[in-house]
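Final report, closing paragraph on structural work. Over the funding period we assembled a curated collection of sequence-structure pairs, and we close with a single example.
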Amino acid sequence: MISFIDERRGVFRVEPICRLLPIAPSTYYENVAKRLDVDRLSIRARSDISLKIEIRRVLDQNFRVYGVRKVWRQLKREGFEIGPIGSDTRYRAV
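Its predicted structure, as stored:
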């Protein structure tokens, strides 16, 4: 819904669009603020961003042939505190 509002906010104001959709204007503005200011993100979201960067790095170093388990093992070797399920979730997001 946020992307829908972003696409149309040049033509219409945010509030009328939000009245038609099941979303509060404050929710939209909070989402925009979080995109612009990383400090407003939760600790978990910041951690996810940094781990996704590391997962991409490990994949690129190994020609993107490593699977979830090998990426997880490599990150554990490098000292990252991450469980196998957490690495799987973030791996799929990369």
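Helices lie at 2-8, 14-20, 25-36, 43-61, 68-77, 84-93. The two ends are 22 Å apart (CA to CA). We thank the funder for supporting this effort.
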